[in-house]
């Protein structure tokens, strides 16, 4: 599901990312990147698990966004999902937020 | 004895039914088998006049218990059968017809038995009122057998593997629906000799080959040309097992056929994958024992080819590089990437030596080889530890990999959690390596995420559970510790992911 708030576009993903839906996740990220907005949020508040392919897609999307002078951040990173992101050390190259509001505040410069 | 009995009847005009049947029972003239219970009752008085002593075995109560309690039928009946117990007293005596009911009865020990009870009105002109008699048969075993047979029929029908059962003379007795699906043959082949299902020439010695195979190794396996109903040939890997009766003689042969979609090509692929897995195992470093360090590893593959690999190298006379990696995903592609990294690893570690430089170099290779059109195609997580046995120091980095453990002899445990993002994911890496000093007797454990997957808890909980699983064994030498780990994971059943671990004992 995609929502718009000013120049920010949000993709809200509501299920765990596994072999069964990772391709849909990739397509959703591609659509998000194709948006005219420069500031992009992937809200994963309802996600508890993401497989290695899904992690790769997020990293790729972050890099693709940068190449287009955009910024993609991930929100809703809590609990088990936060542990996964911590282990793979995604915080070393991208912004992760516990809530969508925090992500919006960051992108809005507040 | 019969004479005595007749004499008794002549002299005792007022004997009761119970006295009469007791005597008959003692003379073995009444239902000798303990499987049956005979009884006689006066329904209008709700009174049991006689019950055979075999009631003790069926109900767990002696005959006396039945004579003095008019609610006894109700008490021994299963709650759902109370209505049936009550209906017993209301047998339509005038109709002169017998009835039979299936019931469940309680035993004194809390168990239940299934019984079949037949009741008949007693044809008598006696003045003492209408009587009914009945006998009860214990059908518990029969019922259980029937249930098991029904269950087996359901299992056979729903199982996806094609199967056929013959008797000991190789006449077809049963085929399941999966067999019908692949051959077209159905119940019309039941009773036919098995060889009518062969395609082409049949030789009688084939049965002997099967029998000998079963005697020698418990089962026979081979490729058999079967004839489908439409006349075409189906070559299937077939396994034959014998089913023995209670006396130990063969009563049935069970024929199991290979999968529905299996083709010679699929078979060849399976063999190739088996070989590939073997090759992958062979490139893993062999145990190393040197001054100040002992290293060993273990690898338990999951069902498919995986992307786990470990290796270690002596860099100079005091430094050793230990490396463990896990390629994203599974299958042949992950395995091939693993092998390509393995071919570079020796040169990279000996040249770059420290974790930061090793990971930079590996990342450069991965981006060159597997990054197309600006898109990541593959990446891997890894942990690399440089051990200096003279300084008793380790320098490490973890590239998106679950943290390894350094168990110190005093019981403290360090997690190797510093590092960078996985290798191949980003164009440039910022590697934050860590350094730790160890005491003599410390144990270093590196592992792949197969060790922490499949558990119910969160990732952090699973890491801690794994660490706690290791803790009691860290005083063991590296091979014994790995043997314990292998046992632990094999006991857990089939792994969803590969599991690999490296243990280094640091002296």
From TrEMBL, chain A:
InterPro entries: STAS_dom, STAS_dom_sf
Residue stretches making up the STAS domain: 1-107
Domain of life per record: Bacteria
PROSITE patterns per the UniProt record, alphabetical: STAS
Pfam families noted in UniProt: STAS
GO molecular function term, any single one: anti-sigma factor antagonist activity
SUPFAM superfamilies registered for this protein in UniProt: SpoIIaa-like
Coiled-coil residue windows: none
Entries under PANTHER family matching the protein: ANTI-SIGMA FACTOR ANTAGONIST TM_1081-RELATED-RELATED
Name this polypeptide is given: Probable anti-sigma factor antagonist
Organism of this sequence: Geobacillus thermodenitrificans (strain NG80-2)
UniProtKB/TrEMBL annotation, chain B:
Keyword set, alphabetical order: Hydrolase
InterPro entries: Bact_Sigma-Reg, PAC, PAS, PAS-assoc_C, PAS-like_dom_sf, PAS_fold_3, PPM-type-like_dom_sf, PPM-type_phosphatase-like_dom
Gene3D superfamilies named in the record: PAS domain, PPM-type phosphatase domain
Domain PAC stretches: 98-151
GO molecular function: phosphatase activity
PROSITE patterns on file: PAC (PS50113)
Protein name (Swiss-Prot/TrEMBL): Sigma factor sigB regulation protein RsbU-like protein
């Amino acid at each position: 599901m995609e929502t718009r708030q000013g120049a920010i576009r949000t993709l809200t993903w509501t299920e765990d990312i596994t072999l069964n839906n990772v391709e849909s996740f990739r397509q959703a990220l591609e659509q998000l990147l194709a948006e005219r907005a420069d500031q992009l949020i992937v809200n994963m508040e309802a996600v508890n698990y993401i497989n290695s392919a899904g992690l790769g897609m997020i990293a790729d999307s972050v890099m693709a966004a940068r190449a287009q002078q955009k910024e993609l951040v991930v929100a809703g990173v809590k609990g088990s999902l936060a542990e996964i992101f911590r282990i793979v050390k995604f915080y070393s190259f991208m912004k992760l937020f516990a809530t969508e509001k925090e992500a919006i505040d960051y992108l809005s410069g507040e | 004895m019969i004479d005595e009995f007749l004499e008794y009847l002549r002299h005792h005009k007022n004997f009761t039914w119970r006295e009469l049947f007791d005597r008959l029972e003692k003379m073995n003239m009444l239902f000798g088998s303990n499987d049956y219970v005979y009884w006689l009752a006066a329904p209008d008085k709700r009174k049991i006049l006689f019950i055979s002593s075999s009631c003790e075995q069926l109900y767990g109560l002696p005959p006396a218990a039945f004579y003095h309690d008019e609610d006894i039928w109700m008490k021994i009946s299963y709650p759902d059968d109370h209505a049936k117990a009550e209906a017993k007293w209301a047998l339509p005596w005038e109709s002169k017809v017998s009835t039979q009911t299936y019931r469940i009865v309680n035993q004194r020990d809390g168990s239940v038995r299934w019984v079949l009870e037949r009741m008949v009105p007693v044809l008598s002109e006696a003045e003492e009122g209408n009587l009914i008699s009945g006998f009860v048969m214990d059908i518990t075993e029969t019922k259980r057998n029937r249930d098991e047979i029904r269950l087996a029929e359901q299992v056979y029908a729903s199982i996806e593997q094609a199967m056929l059962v013959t008797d000991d003379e190789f006449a077809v007795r049963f085929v399941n629906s999966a067999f019908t699906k692949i051959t077209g043959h159905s119940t019309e082949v039941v009773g036919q000799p098995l060889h009518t299902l062969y395609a082409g020439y049949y030789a009688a010695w084939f049965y002997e080959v099967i029998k000998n195979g079963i005697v020698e190794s418990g089962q026979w396996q081979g490729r058999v040309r079967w004839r489908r109903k439409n006349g075409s040939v189906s070559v299937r890997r077939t396994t034959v097992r014998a089913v023995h009766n209670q006396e130990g003689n063969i009563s049935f042969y069970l024929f199991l056929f290979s999968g529905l979609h299996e083709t010679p090509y699929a078979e060849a692929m399976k063999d190739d994958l088996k070989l590939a897995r073997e090759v992958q195992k062979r490139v893993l470093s062999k145990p190393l024992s040197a001054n100040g360090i002992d290293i060993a590893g273990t690898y338990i593959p999951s069902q498919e080819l995986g992307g786990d690999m470990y290796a270690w190298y002596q860099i100079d006379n005091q430094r050793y590089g230990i490396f463990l990696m896990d390629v994203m995903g599974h299958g042949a592609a992950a395995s091939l990437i693993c092998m390509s990294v393995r071919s570079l690893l020796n040169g990279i570690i000996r040249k770059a030596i420290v974790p930061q430089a090793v990971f930079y170099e590996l990342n450069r290779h991965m981006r060159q080889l597997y990054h197309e059109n600006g898109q990541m195609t593959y990446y891997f997580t890894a942990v690399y530890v440089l051990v200096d046995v003279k300084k008793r120091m380790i320098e490490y980095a973890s590239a998106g990999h679950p943290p390894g453990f350094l168990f110190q002899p005093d019981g403290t445990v360090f997690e190797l959690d510093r590092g960078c993002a996985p290798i191949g994911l980003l164009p440039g890496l910022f590697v934050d390596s860590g350094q730790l000093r160890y005491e003599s007797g410390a144990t270093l454990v590196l592992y792949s995420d197969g060790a922490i997957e499949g558990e119910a808890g969160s990732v952090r909980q699973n890491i801690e559970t794994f660490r706690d699983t290791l803790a009691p064994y860290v005083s063991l030498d590296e091979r014994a510790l790995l043997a314990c780990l292998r046992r632990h994971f094999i006991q857990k059943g089939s792994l969803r992911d590969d599991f690999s671990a490296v243990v280094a004992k640091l002296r």
